[in-house]
Amino acid sequence: MHPLDNIIWTALTTRQTQFAQSFGKARRFTREVGPLAGAETLGDEGYASLAGLVGDGTTVGLFLNDPYEPRSGWEFVAGAPLLQMVAENDARLSSNGHVKIEQLGDKDSAEMLELTSLTKPGPFGTRTHELGYYVGIRDGGKLVAMAGERLKVPGYTEVSAVCTHPGHLGKGYAGVLLCEVMRAIRSRGETPFLHVRAANTRAVTLYERLGFRIRWRGHFAALRSIR
Fold this sequence. Notes:
Largest sheet: 8 strands, mixed
Structural class: alpha+beta
Strand content: 35-45%
Order of helices and strands: HEEEHEEEHEEEHEHE
Radius of gyration: 17 Å
Number of helices: 5
CATH topology of the largest domain: Aminopeptidase
């Protein structure tokens, strides 16, 4: 199996076991990190393990090969077609000397949550920033753009949480931060990849310009456990 197949399960059973909660054949990130979860295989046993892991009323996010089909014990909350893109080549990474990039950490957690809550790049919790290298751009002292790392598997690290405040779009901040995170990933001898909603054509166009190519077409599903 390729390291990028069944990516959430692979991450939680290889490079990110320290963030994993487990039950049977299922794994999920700790609640403070985020809702992403996976199973060794998503058949009856996999879903039963997920139910035992999350408990009643808890929502988890899954990456599926096919659109979610109704299943007893689960309520579909939201979902969308999803693309996995990989930057296999060494595309030239642009830079902008007029923009100051700063590394983000614990002290910036509240601002990161505020920005991701506004822009909704994907699930982001109080400890998501602990998953890797996060960088941001400020304007007047306020965090207005950010990007960082999320899923990690052997040889690959995901670029994630790429977002810009609506009042600062069109300034090239996303591209600058993407390139910085990609630079850090490549400096470790790893390959950058990412996930994006298929309908987000603006983002897909940017990612293709930076050398990303579609590897996998699947679906994101947010499901709530019910009994």
